[in-house]
Amino acid sequence: MLKIAQDAQVASGHTCPIHHVAHDYFGMRLATCSSDKTIRVFEKGEDDKWVLASQWNAHKGVIWKVGWAHPEFGQVLASCSDDRTVMIWSEIGGGTPDSKLTFQLMATLTDFEKGVRCITFAPNHMGLILASGCNDGKVRLHHGSATKLQEWTLQSDFSPDLDHPATAAGFSTAGLSIYVTGLSWNKNRGDCAMLAVGWWRGGEPGMTMSNVAVWGFHTERKTWGLVTRLELELDRRGSMAEVRDVDWANSCGRTTHVIAAAVGSTVQVWKLPSLSGWPIRKLEPVVPLPLPEVREASAASALTFWQVGWSVTGTSLAASAEDGHVAVWKLDMAGHLQLHAALDPETKEACVRGSEGTRMRAGAGVPEQEEKPGLLEERACA
After folding, report:
1. Each residue of 59-108: pLDDT tens digit?
2. 187 to each of 121, 122, 125, 281, 314, how far by Cα in Å?
3. Distance from C-alpha of 77 to C-alpha of 59, rounded to nearest angstrom
4. pLDDT value of residue 95
5. What is the pLDDT of residues 11-54, one digit of tens each?
6. Amino acid 299: pLDDT
7. Do residues 141 and 160 make contact, with C-beta atoms less than 8 angstroms apart?
8. Which of 261, 342, 270, 271 has the alpha carbon at shortest distance from 306?
9. Model-level pTM?
10. Which strands sit side by side in the sheet containing 223-230, from one edge to the other?
11. Which of 302, 347, 305, 298 is nearest to 328 (CA)?
């Protein structure tokens, strides 16, 4: 029976919880951000060990996410924070006695009314474009200059909740805040610019509104419009839960598209038809595929999933839960996700389903463990 085991354990040095980890295009650099308001960049050495290469105080508030641009634009890193800013960083030549690399602040984007929760760079064939999701309920698109990283322009924005059925039906949203928590680009060169957007609006218990939808850019009107809505299932607790993350898989030659989202205690996946011909061709709302199997647990102890991510080929999906568990699914020939492996944060290993359907060892009832701040773990196939 195959096993997935811990490959490396990196002392990150962060003094508060780490909110996001991002590999660069080549997988040789790793950026982390934390509530301690710092960013750290690690490099993978010839001995496959991760070494701290740079660290700096970046924002005045919690840093939620970091993201690398395509390397054709240089070593460019973006970060977003509760301090209502997005910052653009670029590696410059030479280091310091304390850092192997030096990253310089190139631009600070301030077109936000509240904290910024998520950012993502567009595919490189679209140019240097950064999408950001804000707690003021808007998605904003900034265009940068590939030759002058100091120059960024807000080209467009839109509010993804305006076309929600509850909003159109007159559902009262007074006093309820909206959080745009997930953004992911369509990477197909044959389609116009499209984004999968996840958001939720919360207030009193039972008042949660959540949505995942695909938005596209009208090249003639120069505005963003709704392409299709992705219908949500209730989570394992029987309620409409918050959307925490979305990821649009690489199509890799397929005519269909697959999008995944972390929604409360579930991971939900949608299979979309070809999107060519939009906006002339209208698309109906898309229902999710059968919910992927998760580790055995009761509804009362169901864990919240915070992040999802597809493999480069778009055939494997990983999701991380609030207690450190990571589940991995693979697409079968019928296009359904089958549970492949589960990584246990306590034992630091997991059983993998083989051809005979071996059950995973990571199950319910994992005892709580003391949190060790500043500990970052990387797992790979052994």
Report:
1. 999 999 999 999 999 999 999 999 999 999 999 876 555 668 899 999 99
2. 11, 8, 9, 20, 11
3. 14
4. 57
5. 788 989 999 999 999 999 999 999 999 999 999 988 888 999 99
6. 45
7. no
8. 261
9. 0.85
10. 177-185, 194-202, 209-218, 223-230
11. 305
CB 120 within 8 A of CB 129: no
Q: Are 156 and 141 in contact (CB under 8 A)?
A: yes
What is the torsional sign of CA 108, 109, 114, 116?
A: negative
Strand (E) positions, 24-128?
A: 29-34, 38-44, 50-57, 63-68, 76-81, 86-92, 102-109, 116-121
Above 60 in pLDDT, residue 381? no
Residues 267, 254: Cα–Cα separation, whole Å? 22
Q: CA-to-CA distance for 236 and 149, rounded, in angstroms?
A: 45
Question: Residue with structure tokens 């083989």?
Answer: 354
Residue 168: DSSP 8-state: H
Radius of gyration of the chain (CA): 21
Q: Which amino acid is at 304?
A: T
Length of the chain: 382
